[in-house]
Amino acid sequence: MSTKILAVDTATENCSVALMIGDAVIHRCEYAPREHTTKILPMVDEVLAEAGLRLQQLDALAFGRGPGSFTGVRIGIGIAQGLAFGADLPMLGISTLAAMAQGTYRVSGSNHVLSAIDARMSEVYWGQYQHLDDGDWEVVGQEAVLMPDTLPELLLPSSDIWTTAGTGWESYPELAASLSLKTELGALLYPEAQDMAWLAKFALARGEQTAAEHASPIYLRDTVTWKKLPGRE
Q1: Which of 6, 94, 106, 1 is nearest to 51 (CA)?
Q2: Which of 58, 139, 133, 147 is nearest to 100 (CA)?
Q3: What is the pLDDT along the chain (233 residues), one digit of tens a residue?
Q4: Do the beta carbons of residue 183 and residue 163 sit within 8 Å?
Q5: CA distances from 34 to 100, 137, 167, 180 (A)
């Protein structure tokens, strides 16, 4: 029987939903800043209706756990928890940075990806990924939030060509200029739920699912940094 996973993501300016049944995917994706709360549930209804399935017939619900916008990440996990509670589904948190690596592979076949999301405050959310033989991804080092000029300290030497993904490269041109790695410009700017659904099937096979009440976001930014934002305490 095919594994059925619903994925939802609102962590960035993109709003997306995907339903993976085996290796087949039904998905919706729209660039919709500040409209996530009005668009995400209708997208969920559309993909389920197209597949002729109910939430209760699924195996798991995946969500974009971050990093990304604080508000967007919270909206996504809140909606995902509500759906999971109602259908008694386990949840799988998927990295937005890893999803962009998978999206870049889907679009261009790149096996080595550098994901960078503009984190504001002169910082980027960063992740470096290698494609594995089974179709999953391995993070090189760890995901982080950092200033572009500190990135060279974290990189290991590599002769591979690395494809860029995310809004960080456009926002901080000095990011690419500072690297010792060979890079090529990728086209993907935002994560998509269809790529999270792909990654979720590996996470489910590893037993990484959690009950809805225990699902949590990954902001990467610590409490001290969050307090630096105007009006935050």
Answers
A1: 6
A2: 139
A3: 799 999 999 999 999 999 999 999 999 999 999 899 999 999 999 999 999 999 999 999 999 999 999 999 999 999 999 999 999 999 999 999 999 999 999 999 999 999 999 999 999 999 999 999 999 999 999 999 999 999 888 888 899 999 999 999 999 998 988 888 999 999 999 999 999 999 999 999 999 999 999 999 999 976 433 333 344 33
A4: yes
A5: 21, 30, 17, 37
Residue with tokens 């990484």: 208
**CA distances for 8 relative to 93, 120, 176, angstroms:** 10, 24, 30
pTM for this one?
0.93
- Please name which of 100, 104, 97 lies closest in space to residue 161, comparing C-alpha atoms: 104
What SS3 class is residue 113?
strand
